Amino acid sequence: MQQKTVLKAPANYVGRILFGNYSDAIKERVRTIIAAAGDIERCGCPFMPYLAAWNEGENIIWYEYTANSFIELLGCTSINVSRVFREAILDRRVYRYTDPAGYEVEEEILTRQQLSGKRIDLREEVKKTGQVEAVYQVGLPGGRVIWLKDQGRIETFAQDRVALSLGCLTDVTKEMEQKDLLEKIGYFDELTGLPQRKIMERILEVKIGERERGHIKDFSFLMIDIDFFKSVNDIHGHLAGDFILEELASVMLATKRKEDEVGRYGGEEFYGICQGGVKRGVEFAERLRRRVAEHHFLYQGEQIPITISIGVAAAGELAALHMTGLLELADRRLYQAKQQGRNRVVGGE
């Protein structure tokens, strides 16, 4: 009778496979990878090798090997590193090229809450592609936040119904902070400090994706326009017009709730985004409209009366949800608000 090979486990090993009821093939592979990863770590390379594993169809992942530098970074032990890392993740980001030339890049963001319900689906996805590539925003003890890039290769062992992920984690905090800075420079309005249209489009893409995946029930978009703004510039001058835009931005920021979004669409047009259907959107719009109408816009000692008109559209109102259709519906309702005398909100039929 052929006897199974007895494999010696490395010192401080806390995984499952080498001591479990698994095939010799996967045990030999795990032992080989652990030995190689240890050699890499001892070379002082600026990345953190790991070997993760999971059973097919299960939601639990464990580590067969993790670099000591990774364990020290999280402030945990090799026994609880999987749980601590999972709880430390703030979001996961994946970047994909959307055109053949590679100039357009799509960024998909999943929050910690969204990840908790998609782990099995994500593992099935990486099994099909055979590779892992993502960036994690991670909260460390003491409040520090870093970014870790995860790159790995997937190996499956059908006999054991186990998948292995051999990879490395690299600290890309400086690169991501620089990316965020460039986005802020390019995506925020210089005059008002509000997010510009590019960020609006990004937020709407995320909201549409969340609704399609069932993470949110509905959301509303507000198209906002300053009434008779051309007259302000004609009568008081363009500096007064700039003052009104800045002051209006401050009023809207002070009025919105933490979860609401406001930004500058272009010219004298602004936008708002909030959770909930058209009724919730109209309530948000009315708060903005009233606060603006009540606010004293004083420019060089002279009060300039300012009002706004708002069109509201909810994602749930569209048979086929897409960004263009949502913006067009809100714009039509803004036009109706203007036609009905301005300083009003139009939402719903």
List the helices and strands and how they pair.
Layout: H1 24-42, E1 48-55, E2 61-66, H2 68-74, H3 81-88, E3 89-97, E4 105-111, H4 112-116, H5 119-129, E5 131-139, E6 145-157, E7 162-171, H6 173-187, H7 197-212, E8 219-226, H8 229-236, H9 238-255, E9 261-266, E10 269-275, H10 278-294, E11 298-299, E12 302-303, E13 308-314, H11 323-339, E14 345-347
Parallel strand pairs: 13-14
Antiparallel strand pairs: 1-2, 1-7, 3-4, 3-5, 5-6, 6-7, 8-10, 8-13, 9-10, 11-12
Helix pairs in contact: 8-9, 9-10
Helix content: 40-55%
N-end to C-end Cα span: 80 Å
Total strands: the figure is 14
Give the strand order, joined by hyphens, for the main sheet: 2-1-7-6-5-3-4
Indicate the structural class.
alpha+beta
Low-confidence stretches: none
General form: elongated
